[in-house]
Amino acid sequence: MKMTKYRIATIPGDGIGPEVMASAVSVLSALAEKMDGLSFEFTEIRAGDGLKAETGVAMRPETVDKVRESDATLFAAVGETAKEVILPLRQKLELYANLRPTKAYPNVPALKEDVDIVIVRENTEGLYKMVGDRGDGWGVNLRIITKGASERIARYAFELAKKDGRNKVTAVHKNNVLDKTCGVFLDACREVAKSYPDIEYEEMIVDACAMKLILAPEQFDVLVTTNMFGDILSDEAAGLVGGLGLAPSANIGDENAIFEPVHGTAPDIAGKGIANPIATILSASMMLDWLGERDGAEAIEKAVMTILKEGKTLTPDLGGSATTVEVTEAVLKQL
Ligand code: IPM
Ligand code: MN
Fold first, then answer.
1. What are φ and ψ of residue 293, in 5° steps?
2. Which of 132, 279, 297, 324 is the most exposed, fewest CB within 10 Å of its CB?
3. Is any ligand 1 atom within 6 A of the Cβ of residue 83?
C-alpha cells in the first residue's frame, strides 16, 4: 500500500483565523484516519497582527523557507498586517496563480443559480508590487505588468480550462485607459490563446465585466485578469453566490502552493465561535486536489455539499444558528 505523509504548514493568523483553521485541521485529520495510506504532519506558524504586537514583526524571515519546505500550506486570515504576510509569501514564492472558484451552492441564496466560474487572478505583480511613494499632498502606486508574468497566467488559465473541460477564457482588462500595462497583458493573452484553438477566447473591459457578473454570470467560464481587478471581481463573485463564508482559494506556483479562504479576519465575530469554517474546509479540499489526492478532495467537498443541502447545521452568515464547532462536527460525521 502506498503511504503518503504530507507535511502541511498552517498559518492560523488573527481574528476568526484560528477558529476556522482548527476546523479544517480536524477535518483533514479525520480524513487521514478514514483513508488508508494518507497522513498529515501539521506545523503551525505564527504570523500576523498578534505576532507583530508581541515581537515587532508580522512574519518571521524563516517563515518563507518553512512554507517552501512544506508540501503545502493552509492559511486562514491575517488582519491589518496582511500586506506584510500574505503578499510577500505570494510574491517571494512566486505563487503566480490565484484561483478563485465561484459556484452556486445548494440552499445558499444566490443572485443567480447555475454559476460556475473560475477566476484566475495574476498574483505577483500589477499594483500589488507596492512600488510607490507619498509626499505632501500626493501619492503614487506603480502598476507593473510584464510579458513573462502575463504569459504564465494566461497559460495557466487555458491549461485549467483544458483540464476541467471548460470552453471559454475571458481576459479582463482596462485597455481603453491603462493602455500601457493592459496592452502588455492583452498581447500575452492573445498570443497564448493561439495555442488553444478549441477554447473560445474573448476580452472584456473590467467595468462591463463587473456588471455582467451580476446580470448574466452564466456567460462566464474562466476569467483571467491582473492582480487588483481579480481581487475586486472575486469578492463580487463571492457575493453573487451567497457571500464570503463559502469562498475558497488557492495561490499556486510551479513548486509551492498556499490555500486560503477569500474572507478576512472578521473582527466583529472573532472569538464568538460562530465563524463559518466552510471556506477554509473547501480550501483544504483544493489543497488535497493539488497534492494529487483527488479522492480525499472529493470526499470533503461531498461532505460539505451534504451539510448545505440538509440546511440544518449552518452558521449565522447562512441564516442558521450553529457554531463553528457544530458545523465541523457535522462535516466529520459525513466523512
Ligand atoms: C485577498 C485579500 C488580500 C488581497 C489582502 C488582505 C492583502 O483581499 O486575498 O483577496 O488584496 O489580495
Ligand atoms: Mn480580496
1. -95, 70
2. 132
3. yes
* 222 and 168 Cβ atoms separated by less than 8 Å: yes
- Helix axes of 278-291 and 294-310: crossing angle, nearest 10 degrees: 160
> Which of these, 47, 49, 57, lies nearest to 89 by C-alpha position?
47
| Residue from 89, 11, 4 nearest 41 by CA | 4
| Ligand sitting nearest the alpha carbon of 80 | 1
Main-chain dihedrals φ then ψ at residue 127, nearest 5 degrees: -70, -15
In the block, residue with C-alpha cell 443567480: 112
The whole-model pTM stands at 0.97
More confident residue, 330 or 113: 330
- Establish whether residue 82 lines the binding site of ligand 1, counting it when its CB lies within 6 angstroms of any ligand atom: yes
Query: Counting atoms of ligand 1 from 1, which one is nearest the CA of 235?
Result: 10
Average pLDDT, the chain: 97
Look at the block and give the residue holding cell 508574468. Answer: 149
Residue 2 pLDDT level (bands cut at 50, 70, 90): confident
Query: What is the 232 CA–ligand 2 centroid distance (Å)?
Result: 6
Task: For residue 316, give the DSSP letter.
Answer: G
Show which residues are catalytic.
128, 174, 207, 231, 235
Residues 6 or more apart whose Cβ sits within 8 Å of residue 276 = 20, 245, 246, 315, 317, 318, 324, 327
- Of 262, 270, 196, 197, the C-alpha closest to 235 is 262
What is residue 217's three-state secondary structure? helix
162 lines ligand 1 (CB under 6 A): no
